[in-house]
Design a protein that fits this description.
The complex is a heterodimer. Chain A has 25 helices and eight strands. Chain A is mostly helical. In chain A, the strands form four sheets. Chain A has a two-stranded antiparallel ribbon with strand order 1-2. In chain A, strands 3-4 form a two-stranded antiparallel ribbon. In chain A, helix 7 crosses helix 8 (about 115-125) and helix 12 packs across helix 13 (about 280-290). Mean pLDDT of chain A is about 95; it is low at about 5-15. Chain B is about 35% helix and about 15% strand. The N and C termini of chain B lie far apart (about 45 Å). By secondary structure, chain B is α/β, with parallel strands linked by helices. Chain B has eleven helices and 16 strands.
Chain lengths: ~525, ~425
């Protein structure tokens, strides 16, 4: 029996008897000849609570939350904590950020305002809308109904530009950067064919923005005719091909040919939005999210895995092809199959990953491990905080009452450029100066300092400072350092502000470790 | 079928600014931090630099480098002789005329676009805009290719704007990454975050930095990575930049020198440019606004060039006196020229077909003139060049091989337009 069928059969038995996390872990263990010997132990409670909090709610825990977790004697407390965070408002916030950046890549908000888009995503995450349903919604909405228009943002705020939409449909939902295939088969990736690129484009090439791409209120219109033809720029004979809508690796979509004279529900005319009888674009959502298009679920689980583990099983996230296989092919297959069988349940998947030992491993590199291979998951990776996480974590670290950071300046300084994916850390001069002297950070330090100044002893201050900013207890050395700094202080509150800053500016804070 | 533009050359194919930086930051910062003061001074002397003076709005070639007196198109001004026998320029530039032995003129430029934005892009990237790829500006290219030996922690790509805000994060480095993007100084003012806040003393700043370093050292004992190293190093770089912050303060300059430049905006901006170049900044651009003279072209050019002429000559003298001209390429450009035809409002309109650019300093043959226009300036009659030719020339002048490529995403992107080549007649 093929693995996927076997697994499908096993799923039927139910989560309780055959839970997913240990199966994930055993495939990770199998991915290294001597995994048990080299892998880091599980993270301690403080490391775990910070990591999970950042990954599931987008910010660090408060000192009180860390204390409570450390004191909790329940052997099952990690699973309980995972569940409680998944049901918290923080989870909605975090997943809205994740979905927004994944789908829109910090593009502008010309046609669907940011607030409306975020409200739309909040509703989807709050009801844990299945991922396939969400994407169907994004790709089928034409923006004409003001009530549901935010769903059309993916297409509208790319101006429905055919090459951009084709490229991003393939990258974001299929894990394939087919951009080279716009002009020719990919020169170094055999799997990336020009016909795949234009097969996707054929879904949208008849669609356009009405009345025009510049209008902020533009909606999607479609013509009843228009074929996609392409030729390779390398082909001296200039042979031209025509292609109908199809997903890479799938069969072409069956097309309908309306009778002559009945091509339109609403015929084109001056200042009229045409609506064809047969819409190619309407086929896009189903073709994309169909079970016959396995790249869709595979890419989704790979992206969620990367959100949690800091690296995709397929790496880079948009470079899935046979010569760049996943680090753990069976694991990716397993996750994709289970995700589909669990009705594209994102929260379920996040929970399963959070409960694995692989996720819960320490980021402390074992002394015996000289070199850490990035793709074997022996040690937890250091994930740079996203701009949103950084904004909220700094606010929380400073003890702001609502713990909500102002996102704008952080997005501007730390965010990827519009249309680029956000990956890997950077440390550019403007970012560092922003953290070092910028008012956005500096203006918040006093809140924490004032809270600390009320505490009765230097030890209590050190403890609250480290728990509140770095989510862990200070070491004895660190307590001494804090006490020394306070002894030398002319202005205690000012010194406490700068100590808070030092912790915030440390690498330990900047990364989710 | 859509026009094919070889989109696979684009930067965003697998190469993000983040990935790019992750690999390059630590390496790029390494040698600078540990070089001794003497070694820095030596590096600073031989380091090649680029200064672009951008006469924004479109300067008239007829009122500057290619006068046509006593013709239908020439306007009211005379041509005057210069320090180079036989070379004449417009009488609005009497001080500059005495610098011509240090400058070459390219008189046959066709920059293709009569649009401000597109023209600026063409002039600064050396290419016509192409769909699917954004080319880096000459400032980013200079910072990237000339910056390795820079003796300064300062950003390698700085633009001084007549007004407006100061800050980072311009998109002009494209696939070269944000490290090489310009830092803008509106009216010459540096970004605010460069200065220690008033309520943070030098001692407190040092103390908190020590504390931060200690934390980082402890963290690195068990979790060292290239990314954490680069992050920690970025604070060391920031500190070096902050220490150099007084370079932005022209009040620190000798009064006599400052007076030669003049105390008005452009004089201050030129002086600041020289200070930055002297401190080791690879590329500085100074913009002077505004030459977009659809009305009253002649009056406005008297005014604008009157502001430009004396400080520019002072700048050239100062660079030469300090021995910096040998290592600093100076380019006076614009986004386009102006029509030979004088319109009914005594203005000149947008014009890209036949205009001029002046260059001097590092690698340039002073006094050379290349290219000709016809008697009324309406067409190039000899040695027509495009912005690509100039781009090659800039790179060659500062000792670079302009035929090489960048490799974003391991794909070759020629540094300069391969359909063009350097203007060797003006190279020293």
């Amino acid at each position: 029996m093929p693995l996927c069928l076997l697994l499908a059969a096993l799923v039927a038995v139910g989560d309780a008897r055959n839970p997913l996390p240990p199966r994930v872990d055993s495939l990770i263990v199998a991915g290294h000849p001597d995994y048990a010997k080299h892998a880091a132990p599980l993270a301690d409670d403080a490391e775990f609570v910070r990591r999970l909090h950042l990954d599931l709610t987008g910010t660090i825990p408060t000192a009180a939350e860390v204390r409570a977790f450390l004191a909790d004697k329940n052997p099952n407390k990690r699973a309980i904590f995972v569940n409680s965070l998944l049901e918290s408002p923080g989870y909605v916030r975090r997943m809205v950020w994740f979905l927004d950046v994944t789908l829109m890549e910090r593009r502008g908000d010309a046609k669907v305002p940011r607030a409306a888009w975020e409200t739309y995503l909040q509703a989807a995450v709050a009801e844990n809308r299945p991922y396939n349903a969400l994407v169907r919604d994004l790709l089928s909405n034409d923006g004409s109904d003001p009530k549901t228009r935010p769903a059309a943002k993916f297409l509208l705020d790319r101006d429905l530009e055919p090459n951009l939409v084709t490229r991003d449909l393939a990258r974001i939902f299929l894990g394939r950067n087919l951009q080279c295939a716009q002009c020719h088969d990919h020169p170094s990736v055999d799997d990336y064919k020009q016909e795949e690129y234009y097969g996707i484009q054929a879904f949208v090439n008849r669609s356009f923005l009405f009345p025009n791409a510049q209008a902020a209120t533009a909606i999607i219109a479609e013509k009843a005719e228009g074929d996609v033809t392409f030729m390779s720029v390398f082909d001296k004979a200039k042979k031209s091909y025509t292609i109908t809508p199809k997903m890479p690796g799938a069969k072409p979509v069956a097309e309908e040919k309306p009778e002559k004279g009945k091509e339109y529900k609403v015929a084109p005319a001056a200042n009229v939005r045409p609506v064809p009888t047969y819409s190619r674009r309407e086929r896009l959502a189903n073709a994309m999210t169909s079970r016959d298009n396995p790249a869709f679920a595979r890419t989704a689980v790979n992206r969620i895995w990367a959100m949690m583990l800091g690296r995709g099983l397929v790496h880079s996230l948009d470079f899935d092809h046979s010569a760049n296989p996943p680090s753990h092919p069976e694991l990716l297959e397993l996750l994709a199959t289970e995700f589909v069988d669990h009705n594209y349940d994102v929260k379920w998947l996040v929970r399963q990953i959070a409960l694995t030992q692989t996720y819960q491993r320490s980021s402390i590199v074992p002394a015996t491990l000289a070199d850490v291979p990035a793709d074997r998951y022996l040690v937890a990776s250091l994930k740079p905080l996203t701009p949103e996480q950084l904004a909220f974590a700094i606010s929380q670290a400073c003890g702001q009452p609502d713990g909500r950071g102002a996102l704008g300046p952080f997005r501007g300084i730390f965010g990827n450029r519009p249309g680029e994916s956000q990956d890997g850390p950077a440390a550019t001069l403007d970012q560092t100066l922003f953290l070092k002297y910028g008012a956005s950070v500096r203006g918040q330090l006093g809140t924490r300092a004032n809270l600390l100044a009320k505490l009765p002893s230097d030890d209590a201050i050190a403890e609250e400072l480290f728990l509140g900013v770095l989510s862990r207890m200070p070491t004895d050395d660190e307590k001494h350092d804090v006490a020394d700094a306070l002894k030398a202080a002319k202005d205690r509150t000012a010194t406490l502000s700068e100590l808070t800053w030092a912790l915030i500016a440390s690498a330990e804070f900047r990364f989710n470790h | 079928m859509p026009r094919c533009d070889y989109a696979c050359n684009t930067a965003d194919h697998g190469l993000s600014r983040r990935a790019f930086l992750g690999a390059s930051t630590a390496a790029a910062l390494g040698p600078v931090g540990f070089a001794s003061a003497n070694a820095n001074a030596e590096l600073a002397k031989s380091q090649k630099r680029v200064l672009v003076i951008f006469l924004a709005g479109g300067v008239s070639q007829l009122e500057t480098w290619d006068p046509k007196p006593n013709t239908d198109t020439g306007g009211p001004f005379k041509a005057i002789s210069t320090s180079v026998p036989g070379t004449h320029i417009c009488e609005l530039l009497p001080h500059t005329a005495k610098q011509m032995h240090r400058l070459a003129i390219v008189r046959g430029l066709n920059s293709v676009s009569d649009d401000h934005g597109i023209g600026e892009k063409i002039m600064l990237t050396g290419r016509k805009p192409e769909a699917g790829i954004e080319y880096p500006h000459i400032g980013a290219v200079s910072a990237k290719l000339l910056g390795n030996g820079a003796a300064s922690a300062l950003p390698g790509h700085i633009q001084i704007l007549p007004k407006g805000s100061s800050g980072f994060g311009k998109a002009d480095a494209t696939f070269l990454g944000p490290k090489f993007a310009s830092v803008s100084l509106g009216d010459g003012k540096p970004p605010a975050d460069l200065f220690r806040p008033a309520n943070l003393s030098v001692e407190s700043d040092a103390a908190r930095e020590d504390f931060r370093r200690k934390l980082n050292d402890r963290f690195a004992k068990s979790r060292k990575s290239a990314a954490t190293d680069a992050y920690a190093e970025s604070f060391e770089q920031a500190e070096r930049v902050v220490k150099q912050a007084e370079v932005f303060d022209i009040e620190k300059e000798d009064r006599k020198v400052a007076d030669r430049y003049g105390r008005h905006d452009l004089g201050r901006h030129f002086l600041l440019a020289r200070r930055l170049l002297e401190a080791g900044v690879t590329y500085v651009k100074v913009s002077h606004s505004n030459y977009d003279t659809h009305h009253e072209n002649f009056d406005f050019h008297i005014e604008q060039l009157g502001e430009f002429d004396r400080p520019f000559a002072a700048l050239m003298d100062d660079l030469a006196d300090r021995g910096m001209l040998e290592t600093t390429l100076v380019v006076v450009m614009s986004e386009m020229g102006r029509t030979p035809r004088i319109n009914d409002r005594y203005g000149r309109d947008h014009w890209s077909k036949a205009w001029s650019v002046a260059l001097g300093g590092c690698g340039i043959k002073g006094g050379a003139v290349v290219g000709k226009t016809n008697a009324t300036g309406t067409a190039v009659t000899d040695r027509e060049v495009y912005s690509g030719h100039l781009f090659h020339t800039y790179l060659r002048a500062v000792g670079l091989d302009s035929t090489k490529s960048f490799y974003p995403n391991e794909r070759p992107v020629p540094i300069a337009d391969p359909k063009t080549a350097a203007i060797t007649e003006i190279l020293a």
